[in-house]
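Throughout our pipeline, every protein is held as a single compact record rather than as scattered files. The record that follows is passed on verbatim for readers who wish to inspect the format.
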Amino acid sequence: MASPLPSKDWHTVDWQDALRQLDVDQSIGLEQEQISDRQASYGKNEIQGKSLRSKFSILLDQFTNIMLIMLMSVAVISAGISLHEGEFPKDAIAIAVIVILNGILGYVQESRAEEALAALKKLSAPNVRVMRAGQIREISAKELVPGDIVFIETGVQISADGRLLEAFNLRVREAALTGEAQAVHKSATQVCATDEAIGDRQNMVFQGTEVIQGRGKFVVTATAMKTELGKVASMLQSVENEPTPLQLRMNQLGNVLVYGSLSLVLLVVGIGLLRGGEFLSLLETSLSMAVAVVPEGLPAVITVTLAIGTQRMVKRHALIRKLPAVETLGSVTTICSDKTGTLTQNKMVVETLYTPSYMIQVSGSGYVPTGEFTFTRNSDDQLSLNITIDDCLELRSLLTACVLCNDAHLQQDESGHWGVVGDPTEGALLTLAAKAEFEQTALEAKLPRQAEVPFSAERKRMSVVCQSNQSQIVYSKGSPELLLEKCDRIFLDHEISEITARHRQNILSQNETLAQAGIRVLGFAQKEIVDPAEQFHESAQATEVIEQNLVWLGLVGMRDAPRLEVADAVHTCKIAGIRPIMITGDHQLTAMSIAKDLGIANPSTQSMSGAELEKIPDSELDQVVRRVSVYARVSPEHKLRIVRSLQRGKEFVAMTGDGVNDAPALKQANIGIAMGITGTDVSKEASEMILLDDNFATIVAATEEGRVVYTNIRRFIKYILGSNVGEVLTIAASPFLGLPEVPLTPLQILWMNLVTDGVPALALAVEPAEPDIMRRSPYSPTESIFARGLGAYIIRIGIIFGLLTIILMQIAYSNSDTIFMPEHWKSMVFTTLCIAQMGHAMSARSDHRLLIELNLFSNPFLLAAVICTTALQLALLYVKPLQVFFGTQPLTGTELAVCFGFSMLVLVWVEMEKLVIRWYMGRKHQRG
């Protein structure tokens, strides 16, 4: 059996050395014996994953929730008591139904299997052409082994990592691995440095990428989990799913409620037994207390609230894949964003031109062919107001070259959107020319192309030959430094002059200025061939004949321009206490330029490359991430390290991405955000949220919605639990007041928790955002659900609820047969608790503004909920079938008026509290 190949930086060796180390002849390929040995050593060339939780396991997990366990216990005991007394166990059945529904609800949320790995496997090409035993064969990509010789051409998806042996005008789109849409020119002869980033390894090809031009041949150096794609899969599997802040808070809430209620139950039963109480009666009291303390409707209300949040986010172009992510967004402290397509338009736009006489600034956005040209003299930097495009022959010659030395096409679709067929860089040149009304079709008809010398990675330029009457005109574009070497003349002030050393120095200085600003620069040149003997023919050596003695025309500077709305979104982030960070596979200068334009970086902001990141340990990185806001030329491992480092610093991280390379970091982040337009299936499956418009501003909008959702969740939790505490205190007090029975049955408590609490709580879930929601820092994701006074409020209002109801209960029971009807005291207690919640719901809309200061109709759902729930409660009192089922009595007018009067006292108390707090804060502000 063949021993495994040593780990090797294959990009650092030439192709002949790679063949020797892999023990293969490129003209023959691997022999059958070698193939068998290597298949035994390396296995199949496919991504492998770990097993997922079964559906049944997920379902069972739903019933391990501590509140559901307590309810199940209550249901069993309640059924036993009912059967012992010869009654139908309707309370137990009702509780069981609630438990089952809550379990199903949780199962639906969690049962979505992890599909990121499945999507990753799809990137493996089904069949490949290889050289084996001296013959070209087509085999399944799964059968590839290190040492196989593979042939590739335009349209082929590369199925393993490999070192190039041949490359003919080969360009590969590596966005899946690097995140950069720009295709990479490949070269078999190049040897790269050890620390070269993946995106710069021009002598390598990688599994999951796609050939978009040319052809080539490579020797396989890595398969399956050893490929760069396989490493991404390994990282993806190493990331464990962490519970969201909401899930942690709900677990904490459940623990507090259950242990608190059990303590109270033990206390009541213990004191009751010491006082000589009957055990069965005390047990019934305990059951009612246990049901009262658990907010049975809360899981459903939270789920619906999150679902409403997702609908609002869809309207703002954010699609939520996992419901808890809605609330999680509100806790985000750091947004790590990719550059291309998220912060930028993902469309190359020409912004600056240099002709020999002028610097020209060009306005406009994307591929829309409208914009203004602003001229500045190169010599004195003074604005020349009288120059027009028609006057400037230098510009017209440069624009002509932009159109004719070009293989792309600019076009407008039926909906009016402008786009490019072909290379984005060439599309930007066509858009530039169209802004000056240079029409591609007309120019190509006037100067038809006769021949071309295509761009190559070695020459770094492209040339075309066009026919013009009796002469030929050569147009060339490419690397400014290399193209300038081919020029001996310059088109200056309407005439062709000899190029001087000063001219060359000025051009190189202009090129450097643009390059340092992160702008991609192309140089343009031309020459006219009048002598028929010198004119280009197919047999001539094109590169030697036509790319000599050229006339310099100028420089064109372009970049993937920032989205217009992102700068405002970044500003909003900073006001909201959220730190934006750029993590990109692009070059450092380009990244810093865009970051400064958007406000992510300033002149003093530090940036870091992937190569620099590679050299520092995690302990040092934990300090670095506090200062660095721009990371460039990073690999998938780097992105994962950055996210983990931020999380170790207690940051709550949202991470954007679109490529396969982003998937591990997306899964590791607290909120993974994939691109909906350019994103791969892998990135989408690894994320919690998808941007439908690939726009950074949408993340900020979604974060605002997340804050609104969390605020509303806290709002209805304090509303629901305030009532529950009141119910528990009322039930607990009944044995000590000498009452013959518990005032509330488990069924009545379920009615309160699910209907009279639940319906208004749902309406509170759609309460509009507070005006300052994005002008405050994010709340800590680790804060307790009871933080910032919520726990104290629940206990305080619960005591008020309980005291008022206990007073009413004592008055109603003591005055039976006189003021009130016999046996009506229990229905009065039940009604008072339910109606009191309606006023509490109205007041709970704001922590500091009085109810009279709020617009009653700004939340019409709450108004409708209060009216409908009150009507339902009255139906329980006066509709005979409901009376029988819920065990209520029809109250007299006096009794009902007393219930409403006591209920209103809760509203009055809460509003008075707001006034006291407002007065106190005002005094504190004055003293401060």
User: Anything to note?
Assistant: The two ends are 81 Å apart (CA to CA). Confidence is low (pLDDT under 50) at residues 113-117. The first strand starts at residue 127 and ends at 132.
